[in-house]
Amino acid sequence: MARTRFAPDRGLTTRMVATMILLALLYVVIVAAISVASGAWILGILIGLGVLWAQWYFSDKMALSAMRAREVSPSEDPALHAMIDRLCALADMPKPKVAVADTDLPNAFAAGRSPDRAVVCVTTGIRRRLNERELEAVLSHELSHVAHRDVLVMTIASVVGVMAGFITRYTLFFSAGRSRGNNNGAPVVLIVLLIAAVVYFVSFLLTRLLSRYRELAADRAGAILTGQPSALASALTKISGEMAKIPARDLRAAEPYNAFFFVPALTGKMDIAALFASHPRLERRLEQLDKISVELGRE
């Protein structure tokens, strides 16, 4: 974790290290699968390293592009910059880039490969719905993701899923040509596809488990920094309620990025099980914030 005034979380650090070790093993497996599918180990290694580097280096730009957000300067949005300036000074951390996404979806997210190369983005929808205290609480939550470096871990973790999808499409596309006249080709293709499916599923579960814990850690760290857990609880309640009013089409478009959002974009359906949820239940988050209020009151 970066040295800031955000409350450290050993549980989050332990989970991030364990997740990265397991994902590294899965990454080796998927690179080997690419090598088998392509028939060339060098190609598999180059593709694997290339995708990993691109995801790491361009993570902030990719996130902004996906949400059609744009970076804003202090002269373009002085109020938003002033709020982030205050929080960064309070947390004693580098100021990230600031961006705004012109969408009615009420949300916010952080992205980037390091605290010095991070971006915090809010939507116009969340700014219309929250007051200044509530928005400041949300921004403190997002800045804690940057300080804890869990944004970087989630970004790298997503590479394994991307690679699993790539190897599946690559194998299906080229398997017909390679297996023509070769009866041994089909079993190899099936094995590679099975490996890709298992790797994708395991990486999906690992990132979801980490995602749920990191949201609780960010809620706690952000609320303690500002000393206003009630403002964050109010923001959570408002946004969760407003999400039902967003058109289903917009929610479906945003769902792939749920793990990075302050509040998940859901189309009204419940997750099959809590195991697959990207965020803790609202009640769990509010319960934690209530406990923090009590703790701060005693202090």
From TrEMBL:
Single GO BP term = proteolysis
Residue span(s) of domain Peptidase M48: 74-292
Q: Which residues form the active site?
A: E142
The regions listed as transmembrane in this protein's record are 12-34, 40-58, 151-173, 185-206
The yes or no answer to whether the keyword Protein transport is present is no
Q: So which domain of life are we looking at?
A: Bacteria
If you read the UniProt record, what top EC class would you report for this enzyme, in one word?
Answer: hydrolase
Cofactors required? Zn(2+)
Q: Does the keyword Protease apply?
A: yes
Return the Gene3D superfamilies for the record.
Metalloproteases ('zincins'), catalytic domain (3.30.2010.10)
Keywords for this entry?
Cell membrane, Hydrolase, Membrane, Metal-binding, Metalloprotease, Protease, Transmembrane, Transmembrane helix, Zinc
Q: How cofactor binds (record note)?
A: Binds 1 zinc ion per subunit.
GO molecular-function terms, A-Z: metalloendopeptidase activity; zinc ion binding
Quote a single Gene Ontology cellular component term: plasma membrane
Q: Which family does it belong to?
A: Belongs to the peptidase M48B family.
Record protein name field:
Protease HtpX homolog
The source organism is Phytoactinopolyspora mesophila
